Amino acid sequence: MSFPSIHRVVTGHDADGKAIVTAEGPLPTVIELAAIPGTVFHEVWSTAATPAVVSNAADPSTGPLVLPPPKHGTRIRFVDIPPDTEEYLAHGASRMQDAFSEIGDAAASTVKANSPHPLMHRTESIDYGIVIEGELTLVLDDSEVQLKPGSVVVQRGTNHAWANRSNAPCRMLFVLIDGAYDPAVAAALKQRA
Asked: At the N or C end, where does the chain have fewer CB atoms within 10 A?
C-alpha cells in the first residue's frame, strides 16, 4: 500500500497586506530513511520562536532532516511507518544509531539491551501524534497502547517507540512543540540514566 502524496498550501501577504497563496503543491522535503527502509518523513513546516513570527520568510521545511522541533519552536510532519520485520527486531538496536543520526538527533535514542523495542527514544518536547491511516502500537517503558485511525497520542517527553505489528504501513501526523522538563521530572530521568 502506498499513501497519497501530501498537498501543501502556504499562505502569506502581498505588499498591500492582501492574503495570498505563496506556495502550493507537493512537499519540498520527503526523505526515506536508509537505515529503516519504508520509513518516510514528510516535512510540512516549522517555526523557530514563540510567539511564531508571522511573515513571508523562506520555507523552513527545506534543509537537513531534524527529529525534534527547533528550540522555542514547532514542527509538523507526516511519517510513514512500515511494518516491523523479524530481521529489524532482531538486529534493529545495532542500526538505530544510524537511523537517529539520519534524522539529526543521535542522542534521542535510548535503546538498551533490555529495551522493549529497538526504536526507543525520547525528545524534550510535547508531541501530538495522530494516526491517519493504518495501525500502530505505542510502546512505553512498561506498557503498550494499540492505536488506529483517529487515535491521538499526547506524548510528553516520555521514552517511547512506535511499533507497527500489522501487515500494512501506517501514516501518522506529528505536531512537535519544544519543551523543557519540569525539575522533578528532569531529576527522575537523571536517576534512571
From this structure: C
Percent of the chain scored above 70 by pLDDT? 95
Q: Which residue has the cell 499526547?
A: 154
| Matching residue, cell 510567539 | 51
Q: What is the pLDDT of residues 139-154, one digit of tens each?
A: 999 999 999 999 999 9
Q: How do the domains of the chain map onto residue ranges?
A: 29-192
CA distance 65 to 74: 14
Cell of 127: 508531541
Indicate the pTM of the whole model: 0.94
Q: How would CATH label the architecture of 29-192?
A: Sandwich (2.60)
**CA end-to-end span of the chain, whole Å?**
39
- Three cell numbers written together for 151: 487515535
- Asked whether the predicted pLDDT for residue 122 surpasses 70, the reply is yes
